[in-house]
Design brief:
Largest sheet: 5 strands, mixed
Order of helices and strands: EHHEEEEHEE
CATH class of the largest domain: Mainly Alpha
CATH architecture of the largest domain: Orthogonal Bundle
Number of domains: 2
Helix content: 40-55%
Length: 155
């Protein structure tokens, strides 16, 4: 795994919005919930207090994670190198065994979301596609075995 973090401008903006929501909305809501739970009394037996403390730990960890990503990430911009798969581009590939077509956007690991078609440059498929041109055939070792693709389109 690469230690460098890549983000598209869209991914950066999404993380900035999430951070703002966590800091400006969720943190104050949780502070009120924690204050109310403390006011309920005995903290040893207070489920609301323990729940609020657990939520606070997760919230603060996520805030630190996002801040760290934003501080150290390399923002990938359109370099104009059309026709070559790179981080930030959209790639349509054809599975040569099953004749299925899929379109993926190659992104850094921090904004990977396979359900939306955003795959990491560090994933087996993403890594195999990087630097390839339209029409190239690519073999990829995946957890499910070797797969073969043809690059149909790069945007």
């Amino acid at each position: 795994m690469s230690s460098e973090i890549f983000l598209t401008q869209e991914g950066k903006e999404k993380l900035e919005r999430e951070l703002k929501e966590l800091v400006d909305v969720k943190r104050p809501e949780l502070a009120v919930k924690l204050k109310d739970a403390i006011a309920d009394g005995d903290l040893k037996e207070n489920a609301n207090y323990h729940d609020a403390k657990e939520q606070q730990a997760f919230l603060e960890a996520r805030i630190r994670e996002i801040e760290s990503i934003l501080r150290s990430a390399t923002i990938v911009e359109d370099s104009g190198a059309k026709g070559i798969v790179q981080i930030g581009c959209e790639v349509t590939i054809k599975d040569l065994e099953y004749d299925d077509e899929d379109t993926y956007r190659i992104v850094g690991a921090a904004e990977s979301d396979p359900d939306r078609g955003y795959i990491s440059n560090e994933s087996p498929i993403g890594a195999a596609l990087l630097g390839k041109k339209k029409g190239a055939k690519v073999k990829v070792q995946t957890p499910g075995g070797v797969m073969s693709f043809k690059i149909l389109e790069i945007n």
